[in-house]
Amino acid sequence: MRLGLVLSEASHGLRRNASMVVSVVLVTFISLTFVGAAILMQMQIGQMKNFWYDRAQVGIYMCTAISPGETCTAGEATQEQIDSVKAQLESPTLATFIDKYYFETHEQAFENFKTQFAGNPVADYVTPEQLNQTFWVNLKNPEDSDVLVESLSGVAGVENVADQRKYLDQIFSVLNVASYTAIGIASLMLVAAALLIATTIRLSAFSRRKELGIMRLVGASNRFIQTPFILEGVFAALLGSLLAGGAVVALVKFFVQDFLGARLSGFALVDLQDALTVVPILLVLGAALAAASANFAITRYLKV
């Protein structure tokens, strides 16, 4: 098979069906941009989990004078009850799971509260005594939080033992839903791209039916006839894939790094290296999708 002749036929087909090729490029570009965004979002969720789970703490909230619950019937946690919890944290049973901990008093909790809710009228109605004194515990392995929860829940003077990871899980669940939504939209767009590529190839073949008939009469093989059409689809899809890759890189550079990075300092965000990792995936996916669609379409056409 002469490569130059095959490429010439493919180039001729692209020029003849320029409007349909533009449609394939645009649909492939949009669908693969969604795919790239979904992949980046999963990368971002993974980075955020690693970043925040390592910093997630277990909060052991001591009773206040107004705390409900059976463990707080005596009102404010006494110094003996606070010392008892501290002793348990330093005991051989729990110490092996704990990296470090610190105790937050009413006054310290109030200062943090005022900082967090600065400018909010609610800060004017809260007093230090209403806020829990709390042991904040960092675990060596955040997965071991259940050990602390089971050991200290129900202890006299302890209102509640809360694992901050539960709040993070809710946030990550929302992000996962957004990511899966992007994947769903991308999947629909990829199906549309595959159908459009198949239709484009069949129309291209139909417009050259006389040429194909002559090629068959002179003994051209099906492979020789099919290859230019497959290459037409692959070239168009690769162009759309390159545009999608550029869009993904631009999204990370200008939106994630420049815009969000300046406003969310200290957060672990995806970077250009992650975006450049996604680009080859989009190129391979676009080429494979186009090759499969075009091959299916032209193979069926030649059987008619």
From TrEMBL:
All copies of domain ABC3 transporter permease C-terminal, residue ranges: 185-298
Alphabetical UniProt keywords: Cell cycle, Cell division, Cell membrane, Membrane, Transmembrane, Transmembrane helix
Subcellular location: Cell membrane
A biological-process GO annotation: cell division
Topology with respect to the bilayer: Multi-pass membrane protein
InterPro entries: ABC3_permease_C, FtsX, FtsX_actino, FtsX_ECD
Membrane-spanning intervals of the chain: 21-45, 177-201, 229-255, 275-298
Highest taxon of source: Bacteria
Recorded GO CC terms: plasma membrane
Span of domain FtsX extracellular: 57-161
Quaternary structure and interacting proteins, as annotated: Forms a membrane-associated complex with FtsE.
Family: Belongs to the ABC-4 integral membrane protein family. FtsX subfamily.
Function (record text): Part of the ABC transporter FtsEX involved in cellular division.
Designated name of the protein: Cell division protein FtsX
